[in-house]
Amino acid sequence: MTVARRLGRLPLPIETPRLTLRLPAAVDVPRLRRLLRDPRTARAEGADLHSPEERRRPELMVARTRREYRRADHLSLSVVDRSSGELVGRVGLRGLDWTWRKVESLSYWIAPAWWGQGFATEASWYLCRAAFGALRMRRVASQALDANARSLAVLRRLGFVEEGRERRAVVVGGRPMDMILFGLLPEELRPFEARAPSALERRTLARAARRRAPASAPPGCRRP
Ligand SMILES: CC(C)(COP(=O)(O)OP(=O)(O)OC[C@H]1O[C@@H](n2cnc3c(N)ncnc32)[C@H](O)[C@@H]1OP(=O)(O)O)[C@@H](O)C(=O)NCCC(=O)NCCS
Question: What pLDDT is stored for residue 197 in this prediction?
Fold first, then answer.
């Protein structure tokens, strides 16, 4: 089977209730450049094996992710909020192993202004469903730092099961941290529920929306 046919089985874009997941394109570059100025987003891109050079020049990242798609090595998709038409993050299946039919890592980041709306959960759920469905994978793995409570919550909410812990796997800000290893089998993917934001999240969202409001917001304006 040709490499192209492997990923070609998955119709793109993927439409979820609120999001469009599509291949990154040149049109994403200015927006990515802005979002990657936030260290929390940039760190996640780093964890996703993207070089510092690509973080400075997102056009390289876009070109590389399209090459990876053609080779069927990795699938990395832009996450677009359909209500605003804005790119709000990335979600990916890194390390597509077509021999053993497994995915080395579900990866994701959402720009901080959009945190807490369930976007990471929604994008990841639909991508995992595609991995087990159209791509016929047997397992999807993922990893999160034990200090990354939000990411751990996303994985647990999807149904990922903790399978191990790499002690002192990485050093962040001079502090060694453990990496928690997760795996998901098709029957463990929890039913997807669009979730209503809590009162606290609604307040956070309203604040974020106010901060985003001016059309002329300076590039790289900091989100919460
Ligand atoms: C991790 C990340 C993708 C989550 O994005 P998100 O769209 O806010 O995620 P969701 O809204 O789908 O879910 C967030 C979860 O965190 C929970 N949460 C919210 N605030 C929290 C907090 N302060 N502490 C712990 N959990 C929190 C939410 O309740 C939700 O859990 P639930 O689904 O069990 O209710 C986002 O924070 C991010 O991009 N972080 C930086 C990059 C990163 O860490 N990527 C992952 C690398 S492993």
Answer: 59
Provide the residue count of the chain: 224
Q: Is the CB of 109 under 6 A from ligand 1?
A: yes
Domain count, the chain: 1
pTM higher than the cut 0.90: no
Q: Which two tokens stand for residue 39?
A: 């260290």
Q: How far apart, in whole angstroms, are the C-alpha atoms of residue 181 and residue 141?
A: 7
Q: CATH number of the domain that 173 lies in? A: 3.40.630.30
Structural domain includes residue 130: yes
Tell me: pLDDT of 217 over 60. no
Using the mean position of ligand 1's atoms as its centre, give its distance from the Cα of residue 117 in Å.
9
115 lines ligand 1 (CB under 6 A): yes
Tokens of 9: 């089985």
